[in-house]
Automatic annotation (TrEMBL), chains A, B:
PROSITE patterns: HTH_TETR_2. Residues 23-82 form the HTH tetR-type domain. SUPFAM superfamilies: Homeodomain-like, Tetracyclin repressor-like, C-terminal domain. The keyword Transcription applies. This is TetR/AcrR family transcriptional regulator. Pfam families: TetR_C_43, TetR_N. It comes from Actinomadura vinacea. Keywords: DNA-binding, Transcription, Transcription regulation. Gene3D superfamilies: Tetracycline Repressor, domain 2 (1.10.357.10). InterPro entries: Homeodomain-like_sf, HTH-type_TetR-like_transc_reg, HTH_TetR, Tet_transcr_reg_TetR-rel_C_sf, TetR_SbtR-like_C. Residues 45-64 bind DNA.
Length: 196, 196
DNA sequence: CAAGAATCGGAGTCTATACTCACCTTTTAG
DNA sequence: CTAAAAGGTGAGTATAGACTCCGATTCTTG
């Protein structure tokens, strides 16, 4: 029985540090996945992502045990980005912040199918991770502020706002938007949200 | 070369008449498909439909050359049903008919994923078949009537109504509706549609 | 009732894709 | 510089589901 010539490398267990190239590949995979999932939705093939990232499929599965895990990672990333957007908006005018955010989301969802998936999960909630929860919380803050500012009726609650947000985003994937159809649709929803 | 002992059976070419059992099977397939697609959406497997219909897979493909063709048949069927509903509603009070229809659609979409697919197609339109076109037309009639009756703003047009309808129906598939969330969501949309 | 046409049926083919594995390459500690 | 550990790779496996094919079965007509 050969005695171990050297002790365990790296910072023992749990530690984060990955090998230099592994870190680079991980980043590339995440970037590629974000692009591909955004364009083709959750049905995009793992192979396409691997190719776009310039790595073998095996590498993708080494970093993410499952395609679903990769998707979740991306969703978390997107959620975090949106939560930061909200953070910024919360600094500004409470009367308009909510509407600005809602509008941006709908605009984005046209090109980023990931956003829609994200919202769907945020709607169902349950085992959702922190980033998604933070997003939810942010939306609730925007809503509360707008209600305090009097630009949204007091009797509207977060769940229906989520439903409307999901709805309009989903619809934008299925309708062939003529230039301002999106705006007119939002106008109706916004009018429904304002106090009479 | 043996001369044909008997002339072509049945009414020559094109004719409709199928063999008795074939007709029965066709009906069974359509019924099964309607149920299964309603429950599982367009991803339901052909095999499941065949089984529920009590026939072999081969039989399904004899009647419908493609899974997609079968789906289209069902969508047409559902569209026809809805168009008839509308026909009935058009007889009643124009002030409320539109809202009644909208509400029904959303309620149905929870259990019938086919309805959502149907609407998505009706939204995109292009090569859509007659039944779907009839449905679209019906919705436009309901809208026009309601506008004449003054229960819907005159500046709202059909496309955004379709978008909203698609949106709320889609959302109902993704949110875990608490009892009256659906109603509160609809309330907001309806308020946006009414004249101020 | 019998011939033959129309249908049925379901094993088998084909394709797409997630995921594994045995072997090779790169990194890194010492 | 070197060996061991970490990581990379992509052919290969497994599975699922659409669609085909042809012998077996059932209906129809005379």
């Amino acid at each position: 029985m050969p005695s171990p010539k050297r002790a365990t490398t790296r910072s023992a267990l749990d530690g984060r540090s990955l090998r230099a190239d592994a870190q680079r590949n991980r980043r590339r995979i995440l970037e590629a996945a974000e692009t591909v999932f955004a364009a083709k939705g959750r049905d995009a093939s793992t192979e396409e992502i691997a190719q776009k990232a310039g790595v073998g499929i095996g590498t993708v599965f080494r970093h993410f045990p499952t395609k679903e895990a990769l998707l979740q990672a991306i969703i978390g990333k997107v959620a975090t980005g949106l939560a930061e957007d909200i953070e910024r908006l919360l600094q500004g005018d409470p009367a308009t912040a909510f509407f600005t955010f809602f509008t941006r989301m709908v605009e984005q969802s046209t090109e980023k199918k990931t956003v829609v998936d994200l919202l769907a999960e945020a709607g169902i909630d349950i085992t959702v991770a922190k980033p998604v929860h933070a997003l939810r919380q942010g939306i609730e803050d925007l809503l509360a502020n707008a209600q305090r500012a009097g630009t949204i009726r007091a009797d509207v609650r977060a769940p229906e706002v989520m439903a409307l947000l999901i709805g309009v985003c989903q619809a934008s994937l299925h309708t062939s938007w003529e230039p301002d159809l999106q705006d007119r649709t939002l106008a109706v929803v916004f009018d429904g949200l304002r106090p009479r």
